[in-house]
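Q: Could you predict the 3D structure of Glycosyltransferase?
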Amino acid sequence: MKKVTVLSNMYPSIEHPTYGIFVKNQVELLKSKGIDVDVVAIQDPAKGKVANVKKYAKWFMKSLFHLMKNKRKIALTHAHYAFPTGFISMMGKKLFNLPYIVTVHGGDIDKMASKNARIAAMTKKILLAADAVIVVGERLKKDVIERFNVPEENVQVMSMGVDTSVFVPLEKSEARKELGIPSEQKMVLYVGNMIEAKGILELLEASAILQKEDPNITLYLIGSDKDKGFMEKFQEKTASTAVPVVHQLPMQQREVAKWIAAADLFVLPSHHEGFGLVALEAMAIGTPVVGTDVGGLSYLLADNTGILVEPRNAAALAKGMRQALTEVDEDRKLKMEAAVSMHSYDVIAKRLLALYEGIGNK
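A: Sure. Here are the predicted structure tokens for Glycosyltransferase:
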């Protein structure tokens, strides 16, 4: 098979090692299976109108030049996010007859395509022109088919997969000893961006409810604090509660895995979520998960694989967290293992390679 060019508006760098790490992980997975992959991506998470215009214009031109220069060597392009990334792939197909796949991650449908009618219309064009559309969760499949009229036979549900060489079961006592966490502490962990849409304020309130019942409750958060407005609001809320809160900036995945292993409970209280890969990573380690009944989490945590609660409801979240902290459910452990197996890198690689072969060899 000829080259695959991966296009993404998020990709890690030395300065920003977790920015779009899921895309890099899949690229490395493809390379490990013998696929020749080129990546043209944005590695700078800087925001602001001027910064965005500059970096997106530079990336757009660099991408088109790469496709023009390598058009005879490229079997297909794989765009992560429908818009804006998929637009480059669509142009590559129109100008150079390069087939393309788009992976829809959630924000491109839930937020970007909802900004205005123009972006929604462009998103529809990109999805309809794609040779295949991958969605990372069942809810996104429904959205892509119903909102954008993409034929069901052209849509595949395929998560980014969980790296079970990194996210592996580890004894809680060992992880806590290494991280310096007291054994008696009830450790509640969240990993993700520090933004309001992730339900962090509800998590803080729910933790405060539980802390009145058990003074050992401590809330740990690992995530970017780039939303200064939200961080000010969060710090004000934190100051008004008795819950001990420990916030750390993003770290390498192997370090994150240790923190998940040390936790009594992993919580993902999002207002919307395309899939919830970090919840799957927590399952791979064996830490119970409480998540909101939204998007991909509704499917990932269904049937007692995790504990689902109503979004934007601190009391409901506290109830689910209490349940996870006090009960031992062997059936749930087995279902967590089954979910991890279904989304393992080996399974995802086989499916993705089959899709590439089918499209790249047409």
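Q: Anything worth pointing out?
A: The longest strand covers residues 74-80.
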